[in-house]
Every structure is written in structure tokens, then in C-alpha cells.
Specification:
Low-confidence stretches: none
Number of strands: 12
Structural class: alpha/beta
Strand order of the largest sheet: 2-8-7-6-5-3-4
Order of helices and strands: HHEHHEHEHEHEHEEEHHHEHEEEH
Bound molecules: pyridoxal-5'-phosphate
Distance between the termini: 46 Å
Strand content: 5-15%
Number of helices: 13
Largest sheet: 7 strands, mixed
Radius of gyration: 21 Å
């Protein structure tokens, strides 16, 4: 028998629920996929043109570790304009997607044995990254009865002397929830009372529908203790480019930067050039894509409810999160059978942690007609059950 060479931390890591479905779907042509969490739009053309031009003109070298100063200046102005939150360029680091920003926060700020409160259902990497940093993710569920926001009382009850940070992600993948100001203020008061850090993943910040996105560090007293995680993948349809960022007060940011420096040196130069073009000139493109997501959101929300799957109205990101427990199937059985019998891919909610069980995630980052077809097939499936 060969020795197991994997570290304990990696051995304990479960494979991602999403990846498993992604692998099946990518081999089947007949599948209507509501499974994928990335924009179906191409990156705006002027971003592509600018990046290609930069490559042709010799933009093939490293940038500074923190990222191009011009990009950090534009990002600083962008955050100020959108959310009235002030970050000096020295308080920003450009990362390899929002994923690296999360990795940096966990690696630089969590010690082994530290507890991190994770509001779930959430993006699959949250618990994994906390775990890889040696921390212990402590889940607090966000429930449909509360519009998939959290109960501050339950957060308070989860805090122990070992709690180091709270990790939140609104607009939410997978629920589509956008947290309300009063809940965030209550969470901020808890963070202050117990001197906790807050990691706020706001990667879907510009994809909200009829509600305001609240940038957590813009709340009174929160700037000092927040690491803001963001990126270009979703808002600007740039998933494959790998550009994101973290923002934090300088002493914290410097810690993140040290990890970044030794692990990736700098984000891709070409992606940074593209991201800069996005920030400077692509507001209109973001609005166009947001408006189309909104149209699809209304279709899928009403469609699922009409079929008889209770579905909360998503207010952000591009996911609907219907409750399927009424069908008598578990979320995993529902997703497996729907794929098998009607060739529609959705992701079981239990893969996103507590609060996700009994739901499935349906991404509407796919064409309107595909969503119509998926709804027809789901209805046929439900009627047969
Ligand atoms: C909530 C959330 N945060 C972060 C990420 C990572 O994004 P990126 O592609 O920029 O690494 C995702 C991707 O699905 C996400 O849904």
C-alpha cells in the first residue's frame, strides 16, 4: 500500500459539490444547465481590445506586487464613487480573482484553532479556505423565513473566546439574498463588542435588483476591522481573466500583501489592464448585463413559484434558490433525478452548508430561452413525481 502523502488539512477537504456537476454537464450536449456560476456574456469588447493592445505593446512583464498603481487609483475612486468608502491605493491589493483575496485574508489573519463564523448557505470556498488556514469554520444558517439573511441573535450565540472573524458574502451565492442594513449594523455591533475582524465578500456588488447594496466597511466604525473582498469576474464578465482585489487598513493589508508576494508575486498584467479599462469605461456594459439578468431573474422567480417550488425573490447575484423539500426528495436526489430524467443541471443546496439543505441553486446566468426550456422540463419532472 502506498503511503498517503497528503497533508491532514488537504485530506480533510471535501471535493466541491459544484465541480462534480460541472464535470458531468461538460460531457453532455443535451443538458440545459442552470448549474454554472459564471456570466454567459463575453467580456466587454473594449476590455478585450485594451488587453490585446497592451500585450502587443510589450505589456508582458510583472507589475508591482500590489498591482498597477493606475488600477489601484481607479479602484479607490470607484469605491469612493459607489459607496463613499475611502481606500488609499496603498490599502488595496489586486489579486488573482476574488478567490485569491479570500485565500489571502484567511492565510494572513487566521491562526490554527481560531474560529471563523461563516454565514451559510455560502460560496463553497469559504469553509474550505478557513480550514486550509488551520481555522475552524462555525456555521450560522441564513434561512428562507428571514429572506436568507442571518439572525444576529444566532451570530451572537456562536461567538466564543476563540472567534477571530466573521465571514459574510452578500449579495449571496447561492441564495441571491442581499443583507439589510439593520442586520449588518447588528452584526457590526457584535464585531465591535467582541473585537472581531469581518471579511466581507462583495464580488456581486453591482448585480443587485431594486435594492441597495451596502458596502460593509462603509458602515459606521466598520472600516477599521473589515477586509473587503471583491473582483471583476462577475460584474464585468471576466471570470477567465482572474482579477480581483482585497481592501483593508494598511497594517492588515500589508499582511495580505506578504502572502500574495510569496505565493503569486502579482496578478496577471493583462488582466489588470483589462480590469482598469472596465473600471474606467464599462459602466454601461455592466448596466446592460445587470438589466438582462434582472429580466431572467423575474422569469425564473415567477416560473419556479408557479410550478410549485417555493422560491424567495433573489435580489442580487444571478441565482435562484427554490425549496424542493416539498417534493419529498432530498436536494441531492432532486438534482440527480432532474439531471437524469430531464437533463437539467442544478446544484444541491446542501453543498453550500447549513441553511442550504432542501434547496437547489439555479443560476440564471444563461439565455432567457434556456431558462424557459429548463422551467418546462422542471414542471414535467415535478408533475411526474
Ligand atoms: C461569492 C463568491 N465569491 C468569490 C468567488 C470567486 O470569484 P473569482 O472567479 O473572482 O475568483 C465566487 C465565484 O463563484 C463567488 O461566488
Amino acid at each position: 500500500m502506498q503511503r498517503d502523502y497528503l497533508s491532514e488539512r488537504v485530506r480533510d477537504l471535501k471535493p466541491s459539490a459544484i465541480r462534480q456537476y460541472f464535470d458531468i454537464v461538460s460531457t453532455r450536449k443535451d443538458v440545459v444547465s442552470l448549474g454554472i456560476g459564471e456570466p454567459d456574456f463575453a467580456t466587454p469588447q473594449r476590455i478585450i481590445d485594451k488587453a490585446v493592445q497592451s500585450l502587443r505593446q510589450g505589456g508582458t512583464h510583472y507589475t508591482s506586487n500590489a498591482g498597477m498603481l493606475e488600477l489601484r487609483e481607479a479602484l479607490s475612486a470607484h469605491l469612493q464613487r459607489l459607496y463613499r468608502v475611502s481606500y488609499d491605493p496603498s490599502e488595496l491589493v489586486i489579486t488573482v480573482g476574488g478567490s485569491e483575496a479570500l485565500y489571502l485574508a484567511c492565510t494572513a489573519l487566521i491562526d490554527p484553532g481560531d474560529e471563523v463564523i461563516v454565514l451559510t448557505p455560502c460560496f463553497v470556498s469559504y469553509q474550505a479556505e478557513v480550514h486550509l488556514a488551520g481555522g475552524i469554520p462555525v456555521e450560522v444558517p441564513c434561512r428562507m423565513e428571514r429572506d436568507f439573511s442571518f439572525d444576529p441573535q444566532e451570530v451572537a450565540e456562536a461567538i466564543t473566546p476563540r472567534t477571530r472573524a466573521i465571514l459574510l458574502g452578500f449579495p449571496s451565492n447561492p441564495s441571491g439574498a442581499v443583507a439589510k442594513r439593520e442586520d449588518l449594523l447588528a452584526l457590526g455591533a457584535l464585531a465591535e463588542e467582541h473585537d472581531l475582524l469581518v471579511f466581507s465578500d462583495e464580488i456581486y456588488d453591482q448585480l443587485v435588483y431594486g435594492v441597495e447594496h451596502i458596502c460593509f466597511p462603509a458602515l459606521p466604525g466598520m472600516w477599521e476591522r473589515t477586509v473587503l473582498l471583491g473582483g471583476f469576474s462577475k460584474d464585468y464578465a471576466m471570470t477567465g481573466w482572474r482579477a480581483g482585489y482585497a481592501a483593508a487598513p494598511e497594517p492588515i493589508l500589508n499582511g495580505l500583501l506578504r502572502v500574495h508576494q510569496y505565493s503569486v508575486m502579482c496578478a496577471s498584467t493583462t488582466a489588470q489592464v483589462g480590469a482598469l479599462e472596465g473600471l474606467l469605461h464599462c459602466d454601461e456594459d455592466v448596466r446592460r448585463m445587470q438589466a438582462e439578468y434582472d429580466r431572467r431573474r423575474r422569469l425564473i422567480h415567477s416560473g419556479l413559484n408557479e410550478i410549485g417550488l417555493p422560491t424567495f425573490e433573489p435580489r442580487g447575484a444571478f441565482y435562484a434558490f427554490p425549496q424542493v423539500s416539498g417534493t419529498g426528495l432530498s436536494d441531492i436526489e432532486f438534482a440527480d433525478r432532474l439531471l437524469e430524467e430531464e437533463s437539467v443541471a442544478v446544484i444541491p443546496g446542501s453543498g453550500f452548508g447549513l441553511g442550504g439543505e432542501g434547496h437547489v441553486r439555479c443560476s440564471y446566468a444563461t439565455e432567457y430561452s434556456q431558462i424557459e426550456e429548463a422551467l418546462r422540463r422542471i414542471e414535467r419532472f415535478i408533475n411526474r413525481l
